[in-house]
Structure formats: structure tokens, C-alpha cells
């Protein structure tokens, strides 16, 4: 079978990594790249840098990756859908849920594979965490808490920290728990002089009753990428920066004092750090997209899922603006 003809639009900080992986994976041939701003990282190789999505389509591509700024996702994705091109759009799916809805509908109506690049789902630590949670190793899940903070990335200009970083945590939380968000309450702040928020704290509840907490900011000199899932048998701690997964088991201490014997608390037990294969998340994501295009499997983040994540992100911003809890 001939390799899939792939195109990439957007050759910036994220696009350069997409270009590398598209060249590395089997069954895909990167035949065209486009960016109206040129090729700042020199990733085009022997390919001409095309000016726009129309020129990319004209190259006869079958699948595309969209890594342009969020504000352009809608127009670029709709053009690719109209041309019959299977597409992976970097997260978030679009700048607004209204635009995201148009994009998701266009790919669904065209019968095309449409995916959103929520790469954390393909992080080996989170994949191992979900596998173990799904197998019942944690028992009932009570809470999912995430911390995602670090310095401001100069590459971001068109969205705030909620839609850029916070969407990672919204998506991975619902995915790990296998339940959508039911409600959110949030606080944001603006400290960097930009028009968009650069810090947010969110509390939420999923439809299955799991409570959530998320700390996300661009104002910390300490980079942190942590997900903690607490349940009846202990807690999983996933560090997605290092792809490490650790289990903190509840200890069992017999109580001889009758007056407190009814108290159902926990104590510190064994701590286990798991060993498992750690593949690059972006490569795993691209392989999943390729296989979805070929009809072999379908474990990409769908555009419908990407749209739901964006709707939650907008609810977070609405909650902060109105000072109320938002029910989804």
C-alpha cells in the first residue's frame, strides 16, 4: 500500500515537532508544508514552503496536521474538510465553541477522520494510570487534581492560559475518569499585562460524582505537570513531564481504641513506582491518527470530544467572570 500523503500547515514551535514525527513514522509521507510566515525553524527540508491552506490542498494531500494559531483553526479546518482531507487540529479545536461546533460538524458530515491534538492522552504515565484505574486497582475514584504551571511561553499570543494549558487538564480528567464535567467554579487573574488570563484555579464535579481541582498558570518559575487521582485504595500520582507513575497505597493499622474504631480514615502504606515503556506522546498520537485514517483503529481524540473540552473551558471563563458556579 502506498504511503499516505500528508500535509502540515503551521511551522512554528509546535509545527516543527509535527514535521519531525511525520517524517519518522511508517506509512506516512510528508509531501507539503505551508506557513504564510515562512519557516523559522528550518524544518521544511527539500519541500517548498507554501503560502496557505489552498496551496497545501492543491498538493494532493490525503491527511493534514493544523498547527497554526488558534484563531485560524476554524478557517483552515473548514477548508480541509471541504477538500476531503482527514485532519488533526492542534488543541483547542477552535477559538470558540461556536467555531468548534462548525468544524466538528463539517468533518462528521463529510465522513472524514477529524481529531484534536490533546497530546496528554498519549502520555505513557496517563495511559498507564487510566489502564490501572479502569482495571479497578484504585477502587472507587474520589478526586482528580492537577497542577500545570510554569513560565510564560512566548509562542502564545491569541488565547489565555485556560484555553491553551487548561484544556489539557479538562480533557485528561474527563478521559481518565471516563465521565464528562457536570459543573465548574473558577477564579482567574491577569498579572502579566496581557489581555488574557494567565492564572486559574478551578474546582469541578464530573457527572459520575468525582470531584476535581485544577491549578494552571504561566506565572511560576517552577515547571510542574502533575495529575493526582485519589480513590478508596490510595492515590496515583502521574508526572507527565517525566512520564513517571507512582502509587501510594492506603496503610492498614488496626484500631484497638473502641471510641474511635468507627472512624474510617487512612494511613500511609506502601509506595510503588511503576516501570513501563515510555514512548514519545506525539509519535503515539500521530500513529493513532494514521491508523484512524486507514480504518485500523479509532482511539484519537475526536472533534466532538475536543468541542466538549472547549465548552468546559468557556464555562470556566464564564464562572470567573460572573463569580458563579456554571452547570454544563
Q: Could you explain how this protein is built, in words?
A:
This protein is α/β, with parallel strands linked by helices and 328 residues long. Helices cover 31% and strands 28% of the residues. The strands form 2 sheets. It has a 9-stranded mixed beta sheet. It has a 6-stranded parallel beta sheet with strand order 3-2-1-4-5-6, sandwiched between helices. Strand 1 (4-9), helix 1 (15-24) and strand 2 (28-34) form a beta-alpha-beta unit. The N and C termini lie far apart (45 Å). One of its GO terms (molecular function) is nucleotide binding. Residues 127-236 form the GFO/IDH/MocA-like oxidoreductase domain. Keywords: NAD.
Q: What's the topology here?
A:
Elements lengths: L3 E6 L5 H10 L3 E7 L14 E2 L2 H6 L4 E4 L6 H10 L3 E5 L6 H14 L3 E4 L6 H11 L6 E9 L11 H17 L3 E9 L9 E8 L4 E7 L6 E8 L2 E6 L4 E8 L15 E7 L7 H13 L9 H20 L3 E2 L1
Parallel strand pairs: 1-2, 1-4, 2-3, 4-5, 5-6, 7-10
Antiparallel strand pairs: 7-11, 8-9, 8-15, 9-10, 11-12, 12-13, 13-14
Helix pairs in contact: 3-4, 4-8, 5-6, 6-8
Q: Strand order within the widest sheet?
A: 14-13-12-11-7-10-9-8-15
Largest sheet: 9 strands, mixed
Mean pLDDT: 94
Measured distance between first and last alpha carbons? 45 Å
The number of helical runs is: 8
Radius of gyration: 21 Å
Kindly estimate the percentage of residues that lie in beta strands according to DSSP: 25-35%
Task: Outline the low-pLDDT stretches.
Answer: none
Structural class: alpha/beta
Which term fits the overall shape? globular
Order of helices and strands: EHEEHEHEHEHEHEEEEEEEHHE
Number of strands: 15
Which bin fits the share of residues in helices?
A: 25-40%
Protein name: Dehydrogenase
Domain Gfo/Idh/MocA-like oxidoreductase N-terminal: 5-118
GO molecular function: nucleotide binding
Keywords: NAD
Amino acid at each position: 500500500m502506498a504511503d499516505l500523503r500528508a500535509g502540515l500547515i503551521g511551522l512554528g514551535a509546535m509545527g516543527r515537532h509535527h514535521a519531525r514525527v511525520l517524517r519518522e513514522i511508517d506509512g506516512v509521507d510528508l509531501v507539503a508544508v505551508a506557513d504564510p510566515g515562512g519557516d523559522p525553524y528550518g524544518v521544511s527540508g527539500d519541500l517548498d514552503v507554501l503560502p496557505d491552506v489552498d496551496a497545501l490542498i492543491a498538493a494532493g494531500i490525503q491527511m493534514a496536521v493544523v498547527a497554526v494559531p488558534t484563531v485560524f483553526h476554524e478557517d483552515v479546518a473548514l477548508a480541509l474538510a471541504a477538500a476531503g482531507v482527514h485532519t488533526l487540529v492542534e488543541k483547542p479545536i477552535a477559538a470558540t465553541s461556536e467555531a468548534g461546533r462548525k468544524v466538528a460538524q463539517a468533518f462528521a458530515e463529510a465522513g472524514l477522520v477529524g481529531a484534536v491534538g490533546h497530546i496528554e492522552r498519549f502520555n505513557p504515565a496517563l495511559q498507564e494510570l487510566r489502564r490501572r484505574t479502569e482495571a479497578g486497582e484504585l477502587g472507587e475514584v474520589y478526586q482528580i487534581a492537577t497542577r500545570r504551571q510554569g513560565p510564560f511561553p512566548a509562542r502564545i499570543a491569541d488565547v489565555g492560559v485556560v484555553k491553551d494549558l487548561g484544556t489539557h487538564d479538562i480533557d485528561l480528567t474527563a478521559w481518565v475518569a471516563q465521565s464528562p464535567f457536570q459543573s465548574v467554579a473558577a477564579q482567574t487573574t491577569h498579572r502579566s499585562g496581557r489581555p488574557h488570563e494567565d492564572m486559574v484555579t478551578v474546582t469541578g464535579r464530573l457527572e459520575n460524582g468525582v470531584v476535581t481541582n485544577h491549578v494552571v498558570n504561566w506565572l511560576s518559575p517552577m515547571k510542574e505537570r502533575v495529575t493526582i487521582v485519589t480513590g478508596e485504595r490510595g492515590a496515583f500520582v502521574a508526572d507527565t513531564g517525566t512520564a513517571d507513575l507512582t502509587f501510594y497505597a492506603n496503610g492498614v493499622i488496626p484500631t484497638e481504641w473502641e471510641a474511635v474504631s468507627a472512624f474510617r480514615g487512612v494511613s500511609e502504606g506502601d509506595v510503588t513506582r511503576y516501570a513501563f515503556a515510555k514512548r514519545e506522546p506525539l509519535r503515539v498520537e500521530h500513529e493513532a491518527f494514521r491508523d484512524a485514517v486507514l480504518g485500523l483503529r479509532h482511539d484519537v481524540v475526536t472533534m466532538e470530544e475536543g468541542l466538549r473540552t472547549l465548552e468546559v473551558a468557556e464555562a470556566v471563563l464564564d464562572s470567573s467572570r460572573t463569580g458563579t458556579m456554571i452547570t454544563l
